[in-house]
Amino acid sequence: MEEVVTTATKVLLRESNNSNKVRLHGKLILVTRAAGQAEEFACLLKAKGARVLEYPTIRIAPPESYADLDVALKTLTAFDWVVFTSRNAVGNFVERLQMLDLDVSTVNFCRICAVGPKTAELLHDNGVRVDLIASNYTGEGVVAAFAGLEMTDRWVLFPKGDCARDVVIDGLLRQGAHVRDLITYRNLPQDKIPTQLVIALEERQIDCVTFTASSTVTNLASLLGEQRFAKLLQGVVIASIGPITSKTCNKFGLEVHVEPSEYTIKALTEEIAKYFDRVD
Q1: Distances (CA, A) of 86 to 207, 213, 240
Q2: Distance between terminal CA atoms of the chain?
Q3: Where are the beta strands (DSSP E) in the chain?
Q4: Going from the N-terminus, what domains does the chain have, and what CATH number goes with each?
Q5: Each residue's pLDDT tens digit, 123-144
Q6: pLDDT tens digit string along 202-217?
Q7: What is the pTM of this model?
């Protein structure tokens, strides 16, 4: 299949090429993101000289039922706000609107909140206006973004993944809002782990393992078995995209060596390079 590189990826690569291309020369880095989202991360790492082993620990699947979501989509004008905390939520939300022959522009009758600039960018690409972007790209950041707004008796639609935390729901309820949270996709683990990956871990070939969501941690731990997971990753550099994912790593006995202050793959890539600059 012909490789497709997005405009955003090309821009990121050009920026990366302005720095030392071989800062990660020869390092073998495991990327555990979902298959449809790993390419950009892998390209950034390769631009710095890394070798990349991709193993998506997540399969993105549709919800078990669309019934409640379809009702909400057909009555979008009843909501004051729609909150998106992931690009997967955006993609599946828009796809379902299209499946129902509903115009995506309908969502612009509501005000829209995005967890960060990447989620906002995808919304813009689909013709959706974004009114509020959290400055801290977490559920807590979303709640904080609403803190200065009048939310009493406002109706909020929260399309989410099945593994989403309750932080957004609880925070908005405390601010007086009514929240309708609906699952738009499920994070499922892969059925099995490739022999190549197990051998690479057992033979200590992998220099760094990256985790970009808590589910990437829990799914890999589930596939390997918790004790084996902790043993195989002992001594390997662990790179986490942010504090929530790092907390999950710690729960499974992993020490996190790299965590960027900005929770993006671009920042994570740069922090990985800085880490190896220091230790090499």
Answers
A1: 28, 11, 17
A2: 37
A3: 28-31, 51-54, 58-61, 81-84, 111-114, 132-133, 155-161, 178-189, 208-211, 237-240
A4: 7-57+190-279 (3.40.50.10090), 61-188 (3.40.50.10090)
A5: 999 999 999 999 999 999 999 9
A6: 999 999 999 999 999 9
A7: 0.80
